[in-house]
Amino acid sequence: MLLYLKKVALSTTELTISDFLRTTRVPLANIEGVRMNFFRRGTATIYLKPSCIFGDEIVFAVRKRFFRYEPIVEELRRLIQEINAQNNTEQSPLS
Which domains are present in the chain? Predict the structure, then answer.
């Protein structure tokens, strides 16, 4: 059964997650990672810290378009790298 699947939408500052009954928004800084699922073909998992009302792992369907998956996975990975790089430059070393 596909009740665990969520709907996700990406904006410039947050990720909107819905189970078609409830909706929540998560800041992009709370996303630890995203990966395609090998055993659950056509799905991807977003890892959150801290968790949201849906938990700390969000599974959503990824459509295949012309032998490539929906660009949201690569876009999320790129944004996570940018946020991590920005956080690393903002931290000053202790002296």
Answer: 7-90 (2.30.29)
